[in-house]
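Lab notebook page, bench 4
Experiment: in silico fold of construct C2
Operator: M.H.
Input chain length: 335 residues
Purpose: comparison with the prior construct
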Amino acid sequence: MDNNEQQVNSPASALIGDPSRYGRVASDGTVFVQTPQGERAVGSYPGKTPEEALAYFVRKFEVVAAEVALLAARIVSGAMVPEDALQSVAKLRNQIDNLNGVGNLAALRASLEQIPSLIEESKPAFEARKAADQAAKAEKRAAALSLKERIVSEAESLKESTQWKVTSERLKELLDQWKKAPRLDKKSDADLWKRFSSARNFFDKKRRQHFSTLTKQQSEVKSVKEKVVLDAEALANSTDWVNSAKPFWASASHIDRAAAASLNSLAFRESPAASAFAALLSYSATAATSWATTSAALAFAPGSDLRHCSCSASFKVSSTSSTLRSSAFRFPRST
């Protein structure tokens, strides 16, 4: 080297000595590298100082040297497939032969040529790591498969449920669990999803049918009771209280309390018995008690003195049908 040779400290020094020792910058700015075959020009860096020009070509050498070191480390750890490692060696060999960089190219090439034997020595480590990875993947797959099968089985067990609100919420929770679960292979995921989706759709269809039928039934019951109200109004002045009211109200089925209360209030809006009837109705939760409470209210005909009227009844509702038995009705005697 002449007086223009520059010394550059670099990370490559830890790999293969100080690369700058193998290069120099001529007076015209041309950068040279020393090789076993002699000195050759690798380029120039116009507009830069000799130090900067030399450092630029040292960095090019460092990049390739770092790739060689990294390849060796990956092979030793068993992280690289031997066939892929051999392809990488061939690629790096070509890069070193045509490298326009400053450094110990001969030593770098020698380091690279040690890697094929390193690949053979590291094959057992690679196979062991490969087996461990496969075992870990199999374990994760088994856990994911077990989780999704449990989700599907629970969904299928709930599809016949008639607890609409609770079951709907639980199926939503199961759907969230499915979305968070790890993926399986395409076929397994598709088969399990088909079962899960089928169970959810079956339940949803049955739930919609139930509420559709319920809405229709309540509409029909409301129509019947509206007719009862009209008939009751026509009998408002009747003194045959029990026999007048009993056939009408008892003939209708149950509707929700709000609708029933509205109809009851409408039926007796002109009667002083309205408040007493409403109190009795709040005690009556089924259509089975409706005719008795109605009869009691009808007993309080316009002009009656509510303080002298009393009624008492005992009720019994069977599990198969709503039946009412009145033990006694007492009305004020005529004077």
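Observations: The first strand starts at residue 23 and ends at 25. Confidence is low (pLDDT under 50) at residues 1-14, 268-335.
Next step: discuss at group meeting.
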